[in-house]
Amino acid sequence: MGKKAVSGAETFHSYYSGLFGQRWNSLYPALLGEPHSVGFSEKLLKPYFLDAGSIEAARALPAVTGGAVLDMCAAPGGKSLILAVQLDSDSKLTANEFSRQRKQRLLNVLDEYLPSDIREKVTVTGHDASRWSRYEKEAYDRILLDVPCSSERHVLASERHLAEWSPARIKTLSQRQWALLSGAWLVLKPGDILYIQPALFRRKKMMILLQNFFQNTPTPESPRRNIHPRWLKKHYTGFISFLIQASAPAPFIILSFKRNRSDR
């Protein structure tokens, strides 16, 4: 009797069927369809097309007056464009991308779509976002963190990637998400962080991620302990969780944290 497959199409479908149950029967064909893009043109030199959910996610980051905004994983640049046009005259945006190739694409997008008076407010960096605190700490009033996703649509579109897929991919991504969230928290001033996570990571897995984060990031108001959503709402002002169904099947789970002044 052969060993049970631990990778490939069969494992992919088995994993997500177990994750979503009957919902997978409708999610799967939706993932095979073309993504729905919307043209964003507000204050831009020409429209930039991106997922409708991404537009709403970037717009959800609360405005700041005369402050510093950070887009930690910015490429290809669509959400950075939205953040840039929302800046007031005294605010600055840092758009970061660790990958050299993706960073160049980000630069090209910003240069091509932003008017010069807005472009000069944007600085592009190439740091590893999970290690940002090595460069600076408590430096930003607002942080947009769009973490790497599991890219199910991309996997399904490639026979090679589908054949190579395994549950270990999800585990690796979860670890990377935790590292990025930790990095963001350490460079955040008392203010807000917007953490975006594709909804194909279930709420349960999302809460496990947050539990691991807060258990390893003790502050005067967050000792090492088991974390429950009600506890988060009590101790972290403005903790919210909601879904944007702007372009099914690509909803987002958005979490917004306001770091208290005592959390240092």
| Strand arrangement, major sheet | 5-4-3-6-7-9-8
What gap, in angstroms, lies between the N and C termini? 57 Å
| CATH fold description | Rossmann fold
Radius of gyration: 19 Å
Number of strands: 9
Uncertain residue segments: 218-252
Strand content: 15-25%
Helix content: 25-40%
Summarize the structure.
The protein contains 11 helices and 9 strands. It is an alpha/beta fold.
Describe the structure.
This protein has a single domain (9-258), classed as Rossmann fold, CATH 3.40.50.150. It is 40% helix and 19% strand. The protein has eleven helices and nine strands. It starts with 8 loop residues before the first helix and ends in a 6-residue tail after the last strand.
Provide the descriptors you would attach to this structure in a database record.
264 residues, alpha/beta, Rossmann fold, 7-stranded mixed β-sheet, two-stranded antiparallel sheet, 11 helices, 9 strands, 40% helix
